[in-house]
Amino acid sequence: MDPQKVDWSEQEFTEVRPGIFGATVHTPQLTATLYRYAAGTSWEEHQHPQDQITTVLEGVIDFVVDGRQVRLEAGQLATLPGGTPHSATVPESGDVVTLNVFTHREAPPNA
User: Fold this and answer.
1) Residue 31: beta bridge partners?
2) What dihedral angle (degrees, nearest 10) is formed by the CA atoms of 68, 69, 75, 80?
3) 58-70 burial by CB neighbour count: b if 16+ within 10 A, else e?
4) Cβ contacts of residue 50 below 8 Å, gap of 6+?
5) How many CB atoms lie within 10 A of CB 47?
């Protein structure tokens, strides 16, 4: 089987929250979403059954994971087991780009 090559610049980005745009690629076992957050945007607390890995590619983002604040900068990542409550806020100082990878446990994530 040949690997699937994806050029993010050719993907369609849709606004998933005010000021947050995402493009998604699915495989049978994983979902990968590239998110672009505008400065000052946030994603309210939520949870989902899928495990999640979020890698910050550009900028700084503040997560609250299970009640604890975690600041991630470019080049850092966070792992979140499925079912973990989490939220994210982008400081007013600049835009952020993250790559989020989710496992498929029940259904593809909507977060």
Assistant:
1) 26, 102
2) 30
3) ebebebebeeeee
4) 31, 82, 102, 103, 104, 105, 106, 108, 109
5) 15
- DSSP for 19-60, please give it: TEEEEEEE-SSEEEEEEEE-TT-EEEEE--SS-EEEEEEESE
* Six-digit token string for 64: 């609250």
> What are the two backbone dihedrals, phi and then psi, of residue 5, each rounded to the nearest 5 degrees?
-95, 130
What's the pLDDT tens digit per position in 87-101? 999 999 999 999 999
Give pTM, 2 decimals.
Answer: 0.88
Model confidence over 56-75: pLDDT tens digits? Answer: 999 999 999 989 999 999 99
Joined together, the tokens standing for residue 104 give 């498929």
